[in-house]
Design brief:
The complex is a heterodimer of chains A (about 300) and B (about 300).
Chain A: H1 2-28, H2 45-54, H3 61-73, H4 88-123, H5 128-142, H6 145-159, H7 171-201, H8 204-211, H9 216-234, H10 236-253, H11 259-268, H12 272-300
Chain B: H1 2-12, H2 14-31, H3 33-36, H4 68-104, H5 106-121, H6 124-139, H7 146-157, H8 161-187, H9 191-198, H10 203-239, H11 251-259, H12 267-293
Classes of the chains: A mainly alpha (about 300), B mainly alpha (about 300).
Chain lengths: ~300, ~300
């Protein structure tokens, strides 16, 4: 039962990836005249023709599409139009690790800030501490990274001068960007953890644990939290999506040489293969993460059955 | 009677009142922008670039010597237009789509909801980025079709807002369509719907007169909760250079410009950032408060 559900979800995910590739391909080819015809100084006609032939843009669209699909299956995203001699694959290989690092640290920030905050708010339900935590959570959700980033740089980099404000390398460089990126997600997790803890705390088995005379810390951490975390797993999918698009902004603000920053450049430069390739990569990451989250959700809670 | 009660309950909630006042304040500022702003938003003054905040320039000036205070005031227009237009578009498409699917059930339902499922699984931010790349990337500029040229002209006249609204509208109605469908399914199994059907009302009339009023509340709350997302999307697009067309001021675009000189002239990024954060908090509180007051569980 579970297995068939997971297989079906995997097939769906593959289908979505195919649709995503189709959409990106046809949007890319919606640009009339190809990528070499615009610009302030038009290229000579012979050169454009040669370029079109070189990049196989003179073939019928359906053949280009099949070639494109085949290349994707082989993991080849094509050449960059503006960065001469560099392929999209090389660009991704050079810049993705930095973004992945940033995303991973931000994810840890989100989880290890959000879950404790949610637990504390739930345990101190309806007290000042609860209100305070939730106020911070609402602020965290509603203040976007592009507003938080400059503020953090100003406070910690310009006024206090304790942390570097840009570049990438040591752990010190990671602190500000990771917090900027992770705080919004941590607020989301905190709210959800609190709501789900409040529900679990009222359950019968918690009363039993109390009646047995277990210490409060063990009741909260071992009995309540374990059950309360299951709904929290569901937001991890959308959270990954938010982190991926968040890197575009955060890397720009902190001058981090990651894929997100490069992606924004390629948008400004109208470098279509890079835009489409990176979009495809991001989409694939989000779709795969959604699938993993859904599958793990089914495995985590044996009460839930899919058919 | 009932309406008065709801209004009184809304007004008793401090959060809603405060957040609502801030939103109202922003709306007034946006509407009266030409009268409040001390300078035009696009007045370039190379003699006064990157001025720090002073009496003359309350929030300082940017890299072209434009008054940041005035640009923030005009920027409120962009954010609020996107907020309300986004809400209106997604409400309209979403409720119609969801009610049609939920009321007619069967094949219609399956067909409509498959499309929704697909869009729901599609990463919406990426979809908008792709759409904007196509919209802004010269396709429209060199098209020979009269219709596209006209749309492009309107977009240019609106400072790029039309395409942003189309982009947001294209992806944001999906959630509300799902919500509406679920509500419609439960509403249309009520007896009064059966009675309305029995006396020979047409489906259109039943949907508009009986189904729609009953799902209006939850849908309004849902859309209000989405508004910060629309504002963020616009700022995000302008931040990465796919949003408004310069010199139209957008808070996201101003933050991007200011970030380049953050260490030397922090005012250029901090004031628009504060404006954006304040607006997002106000709308978030408004949505949260309305949800609590109207007791909608979403």
């Amino acid at each position: 039962m579970q297995l068939s559900y997971i297989i079906r979800r995997a097939v769906y995910s593959l289908f979505f990836l195919f649709l995503l590739a189709t959409v990106t391909f046809f949007l890319m080819h919606a640009v009339p005249g190809g990528p070499f015809s615009g610009g302030e100084k038009p290229l000579p006609r012979e050169i454009v023709e040669r370029l079109m032939r070189y990049y196989h843009l003179d073939r019928p669209v359906w053949r280009q599409f099949l070639e494109y699909l085949w290349n994707i299956v082989r993991g080849d995203l094509g050449p960059s139009y503006t960065q001469r001699g560099r392929t999209v694959n090389e660009i991704i290989k050079d810049h993705l690790p930095v973004s992945a690092q940033l995303g991973a640290v931000a994810f840890l920030v989100a989880v290890f800030l959000g879950i404790p905050m949610g637990i504390i708010a739930a345990v101190k339900f309806n007290t000042f501490i609860d209100y305070f935590c939730m106020l911070i959570a609402v602020a965290g959700i509603s203040i976007p990274a592009m507003a938080l980033g400059p503020l953090l740089i100003y406070i910690f980099g310009v006024k206090l001068r304790v942390l570097p404000v840009a570049q990438w390398g040591t752990w010190k460089h990671m602190v500000l960007p990771a917090f900027t990126l992770g705080i919004g997600s941590s607020a989301m997790i905190a709210r959800l953890t609190r709501a789900s803890m409040l529900q679990v705390i009222r359950a019968d088995f918690i009363r039993t644990a109390r009646a047995k005379g277990l210490p409060e810390s063990s009741i909260i951490l071992r009995h309540a939290l374990r059950n309360a975390l299951i709904p929290v797993v569901t937001v991890l999918g959308p959270l990954f999506g938010a982190l991926v698009t968040g890197t575009l902004v955060v890397e720009q603000i902190f001058c981090i040489p990651g894929l997100g920053r490069f992606f924004v450049y390629s948008i400004t430069d109208r470098d279509y293969p890079v835009i489409m390739g990176v979009t495809l990569l991001y989409g694939a990451v989000i779709i795969i993460m959604n699938f993993v989250v859904d599958a793990s959700y089914a495995l985590l809670d044996p009460r839930i059955t899919y058919d | 009677m009932i309406r008065n009660k709801i209004i009184r309950r809304v007004l008793r909630n401090k959060r809603v009142v405060i957040a609502g006042s801030v939103v109202l304040f922003l709306v007034i500022i946006a509407m009266l922008a030409p009268h409040i702003a001390p300078y035009p938003y696009d007045k370039v003054d190379f003699g006064h670039i990157y001025q720090p905040p002073s009496k003359e320039y309350p929030f300082g000036t940017d890299y072209l010597g434009r008054d940041i205070f005035s640009r923030i005031i005009y920027g409120a227009r962009v954010s609020l237009v996107v907020a309300f237009a986004g809400a209106a578009i997604s409400f309209l498409i979403g409720t119609l789509w969801g009610m049609t699917a939920g009321y007619f059930k069967g094949t219609v339902d399956t067909l409509l909801m498959r499309i929704v499922d697909f869009l729901y699984a599609f990463p919406s931010m990426l979809f908008i980025i792709l759409l904007m790349v196509v919209f802004k990337g010269g396709v429209m500029q060199i098209s020979t079709t009269a219709f596209i040229r006209a749309i492009n002209a309107i977009d240019n006249a609106m400072g790029g807002l039309l395409f942003i609204m189309i982009g947001i509208g294209a992806v944001s109605w999906v959630g509300i369509a799902r919500l509406t469908r679920g509500l419609t399914l439960s509403i249309s199994s009520e007896q009064y719907i059966e009675a309305a059907r029995a006396i020979g009302n047409s489906p259109v009339r039943i949907i508009l007169r009986h189904v729609f009023p009953n799902l209006f509340g939850p849908c309004v709350v849902y859309v209000t909760l989405q508004i910060p997302g629309y504002i963020l999307t616009e700022s995000f697009l302008s931040f990465i250079g796919l949003g408004v067309i310069p010199p139209t001021p957008s808070w996201g675009g101003m933050i991007a410009e200011g970030c380049r000189v953050l260490l030397v002239y922090p005012h250029a990024a901090l004031f628009p950032a504060a404006a954006l954060a304040l607006t997002m908090i106000a709308f978030t509180f408004l949505g949260d408060g309305l949800r609590d007051v109207l007791d909608v569980s979403l």
